[in-house]
Helix-turn-helix domain-containing protein (Prevotella intermedia), 120 residues
Amino acid sequence: MILLQAKICDEAQNKNRNYKQNNNRTMGYFIITDSNWARLRDEILNLAETCQKAFGEQSRHTDWLHNGDVCKLLNISKRTLQHYRDTGVLPCSQIGHKCYYKREDVERLLQTKSEKSKNG
């Protein structure tokens, strides 16, 4: 068997007690059998695997750019960038009042622009 020790912490009760009383609280003990511990470990590992599949390698390496960075890379004005956003040429994600662009989307647009300039 595995023995775990955990401090009992109840915020609602702690609000009404002073500091000295909170520090004198006793520890509670939980006894977990080996089989329960193995099940808990397996569930945690399965959860970690599910998260890895959901968010994956590619999501961890997604590079987000701000307006200024995108304007410099594409050599365009902020107004042109806004036009690209409004017309769907360059998708963005907005958090608060800030727009963020995926580097892959910006590079794809840059590639498209360079191909058009070569052909026309």
Observations:
- Helices lie at 11-14, 19-23, 34-60, 67-74, 78-87, 103-119.
- Residues 4 and 116 are 66 Å apart (CA to CA).
